[in-house]
Amino acid sequence: MSLSSAILVVCSLLTAALSQTPRINTEISQVVAVQGDNAVLPCTIQGLDGYKVLWSKERKLVMFDRNRIVGDTRFSMDRHHVTDWSLRISDVKKEDSGRYSCQVNTNPVTGNDVTLIVLDKNAVPLVPKEVLALQGSEVQIRCKLPSPNDIATWSYQSDYRRDSSRQNIANNNKFSFRQSNLADDPVNTLVIKDVRSSDEGRYFCRARGGDEAESVLKVVGSPPPPSIVARAVSPNEIAVSWERPSGQGIDVTGYTLFVVDGDTGKEEVLEIAPTREQGKEETYTLRDLTTDTVYTIQLAARLQLSQSAMLGERSPKVTVRTPRFVPSPPLNVQIKRLTDDAAEVTWDPSDQSVSGKVLGYNVSYTPVTSGKQQPKPKTVRVEEAHSNRWKARITGLTPKTRYSVSVTATTKKTSGQASKPIIYLHKTFPPDLSLNGRALSENSVLLTLNHVGSGALTNAKMFYTEASEPSWKRLDMSPNSSYTVVGGLDPGKSYFFKFHAKLGGKVKQSVTHVTTPPYDLKAPRDVEVDATASNSINVKWTYPQGGGAAPLPLGYIVYVEEHIDGVASANRRRNQLVVFNRTSVEVKELLPGMRYNIMVAAFNGFGQGPTTDSLIFRIAESDVKQDSVNQPIPPSFTHPLPRSINVTKGEPVRITCVADGYPVPDVMWFDNGEPIGVPAQGSNQLYIANIRSSTMLTCRASSQYGNIEASTRVNLLQDSQAPPGGPSLKLNIEDVKSTTLTLAWSINGVSPLATTRLHMDIKDKDGRTLLSQSLPGQTRSFNLHTLQPGTDYIAELRMFERNREGREEMLARDRIVMKTLAADTDRTTQPPQAPVQEEVDRYRARLPLTLTSVTPTTASLEWTIEGINPAYVQALEFRVKARSNLTLLTQSMEPAMRTMELQSLTPGSLYYVQLRAFDALGEVLGQSVMQVNTPREPGADDEDGREGSPRGLRLTIAAKGVESKAALLDWRLSGASTDDLKGFLLIIKDPQNRTLLRQEMAAESRTLSLSRLTPRTRYIAELYALDSRGATIAQAATLLTTADESTDSADDAAPLRVYTEEVATDSVKVAWDVPSKLQPEVSVITAELRNVANFTMLAHQMSPLTRSLTVRNLEAGERYSVRVEVKGHQGQLLKSGYLEFDSQATPGMPGRPQLLRARAVNSSAAQLDWRDTPSPSPLPGSSAITGYSVTFATVDSANQLTSTMYQIPIYGSAKFVVIPNLRPGERYMFQVAATGVTASGPRSAPMFVDLPRQILCSLSCPFAKRERDRQKGR
């Protein structure tokens, strides 16, 4: 018997993973062609490796691989090399213009866009009719071409007679060409250098396939150079004047001034704009020159005539010398002592009657001695002033010595007159010292020591005492340190610290007073709440400062709790936000109209302080105002009413008016001034069942603090009449069945570029909303599923557009009443609920499946992609299941596939077919499910069938004891007499549908052992019951998958194999294999999921037949571990397995940092160091790290959380942080995560730090003994 009655087999294996990503050449992005020519759009691809190439025009598929998709035969592949995938268009037309895309079906899609521009044929080039040029200049004649790929030829005629011969122009030293291939301005420019009178004549530009254009060149003589006059007006300024040159048609665009420094020989070129009218004198002043220097000056005019420009001839040279300048002495020179060996000199610049350039000052100082030989003076150079006075620091001074100090101004060439010498006696400071202190935390103080004067510091001692119990105790300190940190103090206490030492042989001491902050934190105050949007608020507060005794909070906790009357606080929804280093926070994702309790509390390393009094707040969607129980708010509308509503006669009107304020206002409706219904608090919905005429509806909101009104005009339209002067919608029913219905609509009066949004509402006949869904503005159809047969429904479609204020306004609306068919009139009978049926309406794409043909053993299906651009689909998955929900086929396909043929089906059987579409990130875009019923073979249902064929005979087969290389098949017959049964035929096939075993067995056989199988392989077992003539009287099939070889080990200590099948950004499917020998002993299977910090996220207990578990709500890119345990009937552990995995990272997510070190700095602070790791899913321009966040909390000895998780943001590239104000003696857990441009990365593996109870000081620990005594209970 043929294989036509066999069960569906696996069609093909999944496509193997490709070794590399193809690379597309993106150098050419634009091609220009003349109408009627052939155009080739280049696309060079390297490393294709089995991927497919697609060409599309503006999202419409043109070519797939080497196959043409469109019906136009002018499109073909132009391949001259294995990497060449260019698109060839013959006889291009104007409508072929547009953007074409060459794409490779990688994930994500790789592609390049090429724009085709088609120009008209036989266009005439454009040149200027006449061109005037200055003799000796360079002239350019522009020829605008019809298309960028045109070739321009130039010719020249030396006189104006038509019969004169022409000469072609070639590229040489005289003539050159410049080509510009811009699509909107293709130009070929003829450049003529050093134009002379002999170059006058007619120049012709001819484009390929077009007429020529003529331009006449005329040469004009240039004017003579200007005559200049130069004179020195100050020691550093020279004035230059000249007459503006003139000429017929010649324009002077500016001047170039050449100035040569006679000392250095360096020439400086200055560009000068014209400032006077033609024929008038021009002037220019040279500034910042050097005094007593000779300058040589020349001038040339920049000339412009028509298409030529040139720099005219230089003027004759003019030589000018600047006057000599000697600066006057500085004024008001003063000296003051700074240190034992330094002093500061200050002075004012001298007043100059003649301006000159002073570059700086020299400060000279020398000791005054009585001997004949004077010491060499020292000089300090100063070139920058401080404020309005100049100052200099002189060092190396000897105490009790007189110095002569003078100041001299300097220029570039000379020095000025020195100031009158000042005799300065340098004295030293008297020896003295000072001790200062400030609180670092609740139990530590920083002491700083400063001392002045000469002499060594000896016999240094430090003492302290409590202010309430004066008793000085000595502290140890380093003699070379200027600061000391003292720890172990009591919070909220006042202390005195005393420093005693000998300085310069004299006894000195200094006392300071410090108060440590109290342990108890205070409640924040001045809490303010402002609405920033329709669903977010900004909370601000201040913290009371109490001087030295003020607490030092590490951060704040903001509590946001729903305020519901009559509901206890413990049952209300509460959210908390932790804030560091600031006193404000933005709270998002709030519900408009909901009241919230806002409370704030401070915290530090010792715990949390008291919370503020509850502030009740409510925001509206549009009008953001504070609603406090202590502040009245006038009424305001939260939703703007539509300006007009267009309805047809008899159509109902439903409109809601919502108002906000405190107290809550009363809302009332009016129809042309007459009240409708009764008032309601806060909101009032108006429903008019039958509109008979146009009217004006008004909503009024009233409270004791004011009244407001808003009106809506109701326009009564005739059937199918569009709103006057505006867009229109028209709903139609395209297809209707018993449980499904397809709606389509048309939109008029709206620009295709308009940003619109559609909203579909499906209601029952009583007006209850069953479905409310927002749709893209380009959608033109909508499919409804799972409807009730023979039921009335109402569909209402509305179109919105955002106005300039950002609010949505309704442009048009239409509604239609529809009814599904009765169940017995539907052409295709659907079961009440298929085993694989899933809700598909939540996806954006629609994949309608169509059964084109079906036979007892084959079925053909086709589908389309609707609702989204097909280019977004990166992969398709086709799945076939049997009635028993056994998956028979799972196949991945190219996104361009639209048909599928199923073979080797079982006659008279029911199959469920599922089709899913995926995007580049692996997210499901849409899916479709349908059932396929194969008909029975002819004669199968005939009551007078073949003699001897039993009726109602049922054959079942199952695989038992499946191991890595062996399995046991067991089958049963039931339902009728087996007298005609003569034997069985067993066929074993591999996944490629190849027959591996064909064995006949006796009628009494009920089992068969299989051996020499391949581990981890799926096999298909087909069993046929045969009669005496060899005909099939019953058949059955089953799938079996062999286990891994590791499960056959006799070692009971071998771990359970645990692996992941599907890993996504927020979910994972974990599977495991239980050895066949253990299956009878298994009573329960448990799975425990932990995160990177080893905290239990999930603990699940399953039946002994469960082999997989899907976990959801995971964090993207995070590391998790799962432990699976198999237990027996007595609760004993049979086997266990462990697996670590990372959830899929989102594009652009930074990598997980690696903590290098976490250590205790002292008893209340810890330091962290880390380094970066590469992004697991890089995205160009979006994987850069902008900062980090450190998360920490206290844990117990088992590393379980014992406090709230706190988070500290770090901005910038620093990879270390010191976290202060921690609790001594506690164990802390730390984690670090990187923050990127588009996403935050996963947290690092945790590190744990045990803070010591012993006081850690930077230099000394004077309270160690007292701390040890306190720990021992003394």
Summarize the structure.
It comes from Pomacea canaliculata (Golden apple snail). By secondary structure, the chain is mainly β. The N and C termini lie far apart (98 Å).
Task: Kindly describe this structure.
InterPro entries: ECM_Regulatory_Proteins, FN3_dom, FN3_sf, Ig-like_dom, Ig-like_dom_sf, Ig-like_fold, Ig_I-set, Ig_sub. Residues 1-19 form the signal peptide. Residues 931-951 are annotated as: Disordered. The protein is mainly beta and 1274 residues long. The protein has 11 domains: 23-119, Immunoglobulins (Immunoglobulin-like), CATH 2.60.40; 130-220, Immunoglobulins (Immunoglobulin-like, Sandwich), CATH 2.60.40; 228-322, Immunoglobulins (Immunoglobulin-like, Sandwich); 331-426, Sandwich (Immunoglobulin-like), CATH 2.60.40.10; 432-516, Sandwich (Immunoglobulin-like); 538-619, Immunoglobulin-like, CATH 2.60.40.10; 633-716, Immunoglobulin-like (Sandwich), CATH 2.60.40.10; 732-819, Immunoglobulins (Immunoglobulin-like), CATH 2.60.40.10; and more. Helix content is 1%, strand content 51%. It has 1 helix and 94 strands. The strands form 24 sheets. Strands 13, 16, 17, 22, 23, 25, 26 and 27 form an 8-stranded antiparallel β-sheet that branches. It has a 6-stranded mixed β-sheet with strand order 2-11-10-5-6-7, with no helix packed on it. A 5-stranded mixed β-sheet has the order 12-19-18-14-15, with no helix packed on it. Strand 25 (294-305) and strand 26 (308-311) form a beta hairpin. The longest helix is centred in the C-terminal third of the chain and has 9 residues, at 1264-1272. The protein is extended.
